[in-house]
Amino acid sequence: MSAASSPRLSRLEPYLDRSEPAPTLLKMLVGVQLAGFREDAGLSQDQAARQAGFSAAKLSRIESGKGRRPPTEADVQKLLGLYGTDPYEAATLIKLLRRAGEPGWWQRYDKRLMPEWFDRLVGLQEAAATIRTFEIQYVPGLLQTSAYARAVVERGLPNAPAGEIERRVELRTRRTQLLSRPDAPQVWAVIDESVLLRVLGSAEVMREQLEHLARTAALPHVTLQIVPLNVTNASAPAIPVTYLRFAGADLPDVVYLEHIRSANFLEDRDETEEYRVALDRLADEALTPRESVQMLRRTVEERYPGVPGTGR
Q: pTM for this structure?
């Protein structure tokens, strides 16, 4: 068998040629493909786990692609043998698995700065084709300036040592480089007007941040909308929401819901569809992208007149 004769392989091979590792995405792809091979073999997850000598929880974890590290090659080989997978398909999946073991840039940071849920979010964002986000308190992380990011970190961790603050700001700033990549995802951000009015850091920090938002909104792959305070019936979720969609047809959409020290990831299609519809409604209620940029510029001039800007 060759890639040309296997639709499954034709979808996998582009991921083998990525210049940057995408371990979170690749773990998911390995899991999805293993689940497909299992179903082709006519086995339920419980039956396969029993025959492989795994717990049901272990096989579920492998197929979902969760956890900091990918499954071991020995475990994947055992499953491929159990499913009678074609040797060429099996070899391609093993190559994918090995690439999944290559660390992403964010995984080189101290794990104290990268709890497992945040590691997964950054990895998913790095691999997503589309990122939709709604924020009610802060500018979305991918759109923050360094100074604004520092103000957010200092507000959340008032007693953290200076060195830790700097490392966290560096990590946040590095994430924003995603938007300048040649294969940057489509980003659609909806933010509440209160985000523009809440002063973090200083007036100078806020002016720079709002000017940066206006410039970023001009990028062809970025859409920014603002929900004005006078929209009293806006169907806004009560917490920040990030919705991620991937290029691979086999991969589910993922919804990320952030809490103070934890997060939830939703992958069930019925649940993610509810959030997609909610974000669609919210976008309909928000200002248009053009009106949103006009509000940004108006807010800058009304609230921060005479404050030095970036001039860029």
A: 0.84
